Amino acid sequence: MNKVAAISSWSGGKDSCLACYKAMQSGYDVRYLLNFISRESKRGCFHGIEAELLSLQVRRIGIPLVQKEVTADMKKYEEEFKEAVARLKTEEMRNMVFGDIYLLDMINWVERVCGDLGVQPVEPLWQQDPIKIVDEFTGLGFKAIIVSCQAEKMGKEYLGRPVDVDLANELKKKGVCPCGENGEFHTLVVDGPIFKEPIRILEAEPILKEGFWKHWFLDIKKYS
Question: What are the percentages of helix, strand and coil residues in the chain, rounded to 5?
Fold first, then answer.
């Protein structure tokens, strides 16, 4: 059976990783992982992972990474997003994988923007139960750690915590989405069935950053 070519939106976190994996398992040939980093910080948008660590992660997976610098302005971000996807899209490659779970605003944005581009969105996690997503993620052998979280909802003690069902249930009791779908926390995938070799975090420290929300970030200083 001929596989369908696709681009996969990539943050380095568990949801984009699982969505990509599930798309691949269902017959999509993921040719590129598309990642957006802040023009100011040179780190992944929202997750705060430095560009070089994201590059290493994807090299361990073996799918070509396309990184694009973007601004914080949402209107400009949409233009930059469209520009990046348009450059990768071909007659053969008109599908793009996303890791959305239940936020209507996000899927409406994805469908509108992909419609403008003539691209078909692929949403393998859509409307699945967040705890079941975590269970599937870990059951497949993926490993991820928390690298950022909203300070008012989760303390710095959550930084570096591995993602598993116990954590998911704990967060649900606190009123936090077990997948962090509302931006409560973000993760970095360090190992799994698509990795040739795991990423090892050797040195890291918590940093509190002010902004619209106070966020704790895991500043990863050394890794291999």
Answer: 35, 30, 40
Q: Are 3 and 77 contacting, i.e. CB atoms less than 8 angstroms apart?
A: no
pTM to 2 decimal places: 0.94
Q: What is the mean pLDDT of residues 25-29?
A: 96
Helical axes 14-25 vs 130-139, angle rounded to 10°: 70
Which of 68 and 6 is assigned the larger pLDDT? 6
DSSP letter at 121 equals E
SS3 101: coil
- The number of folded domains in the chain is 2
Q: Specify the CATH number for the domain of residue 87.
A: 3.40.50.620
Q: Which domain holds residue 208?
A: 130-223
- 185 vs 209, higher pLDDT: 185
Three-state DSSP state, 158: helix
Q: Tokens 């994988």 correspond to what residue?
A: 97
Closest CA to 108 of 96, 97, 121: 121
